[in-house]
Specification:
Strand content: 25-35%
Distance between the termini: 61 Å
Oligomer: single chain
Number of strands: 7
Number of helices: 2
Shape: flat
Structural class: alpha+beta
Strand order of the largest sheet: 1-2-3-4-5
Length: 111
C-alpha cells in the first residue's frame, strides 16, 4: 500500500483517531497518530523524507524502522521516492477575503 493510501485510510478513522490523538513533535519532525483503543499507532517522519517509520498494531511494532513505508514511482529507468532527499513541507495559509461591510482586522497606528 502506498503512503498516500495509508494516509487516506488514516483520514477515514475520524473519530477513532480523534479519541486517541495526534501528537506533533516539531523538533524531531514526527507526527504520531493513534486510535483511542491502542489498536493502531502510526508515526510519520518528515525530516528530509515523508515516511511511516513506526507502525504498531495492538501494541506490537510490525514495521522495520529503517525501511519503513514510503511512496515511490518509477518513470522509465528513474525512480522517485519519499524515503529521502525531500525538503520539509511548508504550509501557506491563504488570506481570506473580507465580506463587504466587514471591518478590517488590520491595526492602524494613530499618531
Amino acid at each position: 500500500m502506498c503512503l498516500a493510501g495509508v494516509l487516506l485510510w488514516i483520514a477515514t478513522l475520524g473519530a477513532a483517531v480523534a479519541e486517541g490523538g495526534i501528537e506533533h513533535d516539531r523538533a524531531r519532525k514526527l507526527i504520531t497518530m493513534a486510535d483511542g483503543e491502542d489498536s493502531l499507532l502510526l508515526r510519520l517522519s518528515y525530516d528530509g523524507r515523508c515516511m511511516l517509520d513506526r507502525v504498531a498494531v495492538r501494541g506490537t511494532d510490525v514495521l522495520c524502522s529503517t525501511t519503513g513505508v514510503c511512496s515511490a514511482i518509477r518513470v522509465g529507468s528513474a525512480e522517485y521516492t519519499t524515503r529521502s532527499g525531500i525538503r520539509s513541507p511548508m504550509r501557506k495559509v491563504p488570506r481570506l477575503a473580507r465580506a463587504p461591510g466587514t471591518p478590517s482586522r488590520e491595526r492602524t497606528s494613530k499618531r
